[in-house]
Amino acid sequence: MATTMDEEERKLQRLKAALHHTVGRLCQSLGENQQMEFSRQVIAAISETTFRQCDVFAKDLEDFARHAKRSTVSMEDVKLVARRSTALYDFIQRKSEEIANTSQDQRDKKKSGIKRKNKDTEAME
Predict the structure, then answer these.
(1) What is the DSSP string of 71-98?
(2) Where are the domains of the chain?
(3) Is the CATH number of domain 1-72 3.40.50.360?
(4) Cα-Cα end-to-end distance for the chain
(5) How many Cβ atoms from other residues are within 10 Å of residue 31's Cβ?
(6) pLDDT at residue 68 greater than cutoff 90
(7) What is the C-alpha separation between 89 and 87, in angstroms, rounded?
(8) Apex 90 CA angle, 86 and 93, nearest 5
(9) Per-residue pLDDT tens digits for 85-119
(10) Would you say residue 122 has pLDDT above 60?
């Protein structure tokens, strides 16, 4: 039992480290563009805040799916989580539309490929 807990803790620490690294790189890039520097403490605070907010989002997403009696999180659940932030909601809405359009385009291409294949088969007969 302790081994499983240790493994989970290691995964959590690796995830936090990866997030901290990414935040550091983003701050470095932003700092270069804006001619400013971010202290290690600021980067650590941003990383911790981001991690905690992601944890809240993840729990909310699970709750929304469970409330709808689903085991899978849907795009609507994600939009619901983002509703408190207009900028985040707008971004997610745009991405949702892009995904929907891409999916529709792929379905259309697949359908036209099937139709073309059927026509080719008919021509051979």
Answers:
(1) SS--HHHHHHHGGG-HHHHHHHHHHHHH
(2) 1-72, 85-125
(3) no
(4) 66
(5) 12
(6) yes
(7) 5
(8) 135
(9) 999 999 999 999 999 898 888 888 777 766 655 55
(10) no
Q: Which helix (H) or strand (E) holds 63?
A: helix 40-67
CA distances from 53 to 57, 60, 124 (A): 6, 10, 60
Contacts of 47 (CB under 8 A, 6+ apart): 16, 19, 20, 23, 24
Section 10-20 average pLDDT: 96
DSSP classification of residue 1: -
**pLDDT per position as a tens digit, 16-43:** 999 999 999 999 999 999 999 999 999 9
Q: Which two structure tokens, joined as six digits, stand for 28?
A: 């470095």
Which residue bears the tokens 């990383």?
47
For residues 92 and 57, is the Cβ–Cβ distance under 8 A?
no
What is the C-alpha separation between 89 and 23, in angstroms, rounded? 22
